[in-house]
Amino acid sequence: MLSNWRLTAAFTAVLAATTMAQDMSKIVNTSHNMTNLDVWGVVIPEDRICLPCHVSHNARTDDNGQAMVLWNHAITDQTFEMYTTAAGNQGRQPEGSSKMCLSCHDGATAIDDFGGNTDFFSNVKIPADSLSNLGTDLRDDHPIGVEYPPPDLTGYNDKSTFTGAKLITINGVDRVECTSCHDPHDDSLGMFLRQTMAGSALCLECHNK
Amino acid sequence: MKRPTDRIFLTALVAAAFCCPPAAFAQDHVADTAHNLSASGPGDIRAQSEEQICIFCHAPLNTGGATPLWNRESSAASYNIYRSSTFDAAPGQPTGSSKLCLSCHDGTIALGRVLSRRDRIRLAGGDFIPSGLANLGTDLSDDHPISFHYTSGLAASDRQLRSPSSLPREIKLDPSSQLQCTACHDAHRNAYRMFLTVSDEYGALCVACHDMDGWESSPHSTAGTAVSGSTTGEWPFDTVAQNACRSCHRTHAAGGHERLMISRNEEDNCLSCHDGRVARYNILAELDKPAGHHPRRYSGIHDPVETLAGSRPHVECSDCHNPHAVDAPARQGYAAIGATMQKVPGLTSGGSYVQEAQFEYEVCFRCHGDAPVPIRRRVARQANQPNLRLKFTSGNPSFHPIVTASPSGDTVSLDPTIPSGTLIRCTDCHNSDSGPRAGGTGPDGPHGSTHDYLLERRYTVRDNTPESAFDYALCYKCHSRASILANESFPTHALHVRDFNSPCSVCHDPHGISTVVATSSDHTHLINFDPTVVRPLDANTPVSFRDYGKFAGTCTLTCHGYAHDDTEYGN
Questions:
Q1: B39 touches chain A (CB under 8 A)
Q2: Closest chain A residue to B28 measured between Cα atoms?
Q3: pTM score > 0.90 for this model?
Q4: To pair with B518 at 20 to 30 A between CA atoms, which of B28, B85, B165, B364?
Q5: Rounded mean pLDDT, B1-14
Q6: Cross-chain Cβ contact A87/B38 below 8 Å
């Protein structure tokens, strides 16, 4: 049984953590809140948090005219070099939500190139030396747009066992996309990850290693 | 063509390995294995504080590394590559995924040096892989070969490899059909010790690729004999059958690099069991005898693909025994070739080299035939022929019935229990002095003997030896002493042997006399005088024996000071 002083100490510690640390599960506290952000020397004078990515009316549609989460940001026009599997198969070009992520994280599309931003466009991009800049060479990045589980491989866990990772279903096929590992709205685990990397838990959600 | 039993045997082995994995080693997840280098890892080698497991090898983003998201730089080491006279593939430097493994296991790159981190991840027990079996170093000549194309063509030329199409699904080649570390090891799963993809118990892992002729039925693969008796072995399992290939071979850090033997000295691989502790017979004790085949005197000479004339004289166990195909020795009775000498090369009586000798003498002829090794204190002969193959040829004036039965059928002195026309083997004379054919309990076979010329019984060749059953025990094994001394075959046998103390060898050449070197002498009845005892009558008259038919002949020579000038015997 915990002694009184230990209970008090624990309570104090919890209180301190709650008051002092920001709740990183809220986008307002994360680096994805770009309002009035001084991004590498350029201030984006915008106070609507969602606007760089989303807009409530007249949003963009994808190449097939389909709605895409009320998307407001310019879509990357880059061609990417994709990851090649051990069997020598190169992945298809990014689609869907992954293409939305790459519309900033390709390092080629301006962060502030979004709808309604006509007055202060400064063409600011993620700098080349940032870890967030994936570039257009995705050969050394985890494959995206790939079917899960891979039809030609074994050693993957059933999706029913996932507690953090998420599959994206496109045309009835479960796929791994950027948002399988990342939740752009919640940075409570760091790197906007959906599961802790302690014990490589995120990796092992899919990989039965 | 593959025998149908091969596939059944292999399937059974692999099935056996999978149905009963040793529970103590079942580490099905990388987190449970020594490859979990994070601070939570179970092994001694782990990070001081790093919590991620995968990061030591993989990172999801921007590593600059190759598939599979490799997070390590490649070692710049130049490796010493495995080479063997019986390995046809001859690969170059390591490639593919093997390079990934070597980026830790060659010991040149710190374990925590990963591409995704600016600073090295610090490890608790030292930053590099410690010395030991897991640290292969850059000398891979004592490790199983990797990074070679395992193709059906390779299997066909090797003859002792299975077709890659028959590999079990657990054993994978890389996308370019190369065999890499990952064929035998699964870095993420340690189900059978050493991260093996298939258990090596009963040799299952090895025989998935290696198809050694005769292996399935050899006691080396089937014997339930416990190996605990040996003090020198370091075997993972309890019995000979369980250890199987591991009884003699090491896939890493092998003592004998070529063919990955445990010990550098060839015979030590055999004698670690055949020293009376594990195998039934103590061969080691035989090798301490003065006469014998002495494999401990040679090292690094024997080669399975050696040619008869191209090799320096030597003897190793595997010159006469095929360790993959040997069978247990038969207790008694004549066999053209012993069970312990199955599937070894030989030289036929006609002089052709064969991969599988069908007769025991063919094995002996490899070294004592057309390319004869020197024999210590060999008895000199009037008609000298060191090639024993030629001495047993059926057209010769006389020979012991090794290759063909004696044509005459009138060997008067022959023990009546031995039927006329009986064939004998080299080992009926050349054998252990303590083996079953000598009435002892030791191993059969010409490993060693206390008697000169590696003979099973005493055979004195020294002149002026008083006749006795003891001194000519070898000859009297088959030839009746009573008959000899009663002069039944030669009227003055008793005079020569008993009264003048002449040994059998002074007149008789026990192997046979080759027509190739026969002089004017007839050389029937194995007559081929020892010229150190038997001298010419005079400078112009060569030593000669003339056969005038049954029980009749003449000799012209000088012996023990007595001149024989066309001296007749018989009628």
A1: no
A2: A209
A3: no
A4: B364
A5: 47
A6: no
